[in-house]
Amino acid sequence: MHRREPLAVGIMGGTFNPIHFGHLRAAEEVAESLQLGQVIFIPAAKPPHKSEVGLVSFDHRWHMLELATAGNPLFVLSDLEYQRPGISYSVETLTQLAKERGGGEELYFVLGLDAFLELPTWKSYRELFSLCHFVVVARPGFSPESLDAMLKTQVSASYSFDFQVQGYLHPSLHTVYYREVTLLDISSSSIRKLLAEGGTVRYLLPKKVEEYIQQQGLYQQP
User: Fold this and answer.
1) Is 134 helix (H, G, I), strand (E, B) or coil?
2) DSSP 8-state secondary structure symbol assigned to residue 205
3) Sheet holding 176-179, edge to edge
4) 3-class secondary structure, 34
5) Which runs of consecutive H residues, i.e. helices, occur in 168-216?
6) pTM passes above 0.85
């Protein structure tokens, strides 16, 4: 009987306030590059690093995710952070996810380079490198040299770049991949600002998400 290879699973976390084409295209390209069998979108219920000012309810963000990911069999949603009380810490989420899914999978935590550089401010961030691989996605205005410096000074000097895998290898910790993707300089905050000012957000996010935002009157100035 042949041993079944572990499924490679991508993890996309964030507030998704709202989800946009930058999130979706990065997930698609990373999945293709690393041959991921699935990408799980996990919206934060109570993010530790972001103010709740302007953060719409979990139900609204969840519904927008459903609309945005429908039709892509690779993309699935998890409300794990909503089900767990308290602040949504990534180290707790990944520990729970690995336990729930039986540990038979390789987990790949997908993050923009800007977010990755903020890891040292996260709870127990060094533990993450024992729980999962990272896929760091290029972001406009951020250089790969900053990734190299942060990794070697804040995590472990034993990380070294391997050109074949296009990532950083370590003797005992998980791999940190670096991927150039289509650079869509879109942010949820810029979308919220446009909506508050009465501007158009067409072509920044899926049409069904745009329609839902308009129907529900989200992100409008009071």
Assistant:
1) strand
2) S
3) 75-77, 38-43, 7-14, 105-112, 133-137, 176-179, 167-169, 160-162
4) coil
5) 188-196, 207-216
6) yes
b/e burial code for range 44-67 (CB count within 10 A of at least 16 → b): bbbbeeeeeeebbebebbbebbeb
Q: How many residues does the chain have?
A: 222
Query: Can you list the alpha helix ranges (DSSP code H) found in 34-150?
Result: 58-69, 80-83, 90-100, 113-116, 125-131, 144-150
Q: Report all structural domains of the chain as residue ranges with CATH numbers, in order of start.
A: 7-185 (3.40.50.620)
Which uninterrupted H or E stretch holds 186? none
In the predicted structure, residue 170 carries a pLDDT above the cut 60: yes
Beta strand 133-137 with 176-179 is: parallel
DSSP state at residue 122:
S
**pLDDT over 70 (residue 2):** no
What are the Cα distances from residue 221, in Å, to 23, 60, 63, 196?
25, 17, 21, 5
- List C-alpha distances in Å: 204 to 18, 19, 129, 182, 193: 10, 10, 33, 14, 13
pLDDT for the residue 6? 52
Among the listed residues 169, 191, 188, the one whose alpha carbon sits nearest the alpha carbon of residue 178? 169
What are 187-219's pLDDT values in tens digits?
Answer: 999 999 999 999 999 999 999 999 999 999 999
CA distance 143 to 156: 19
Which residues lie closer than 8 Å to 27 by C-beta, 6 or more apart? 10, 12, 39, 41, 74, 75, 110
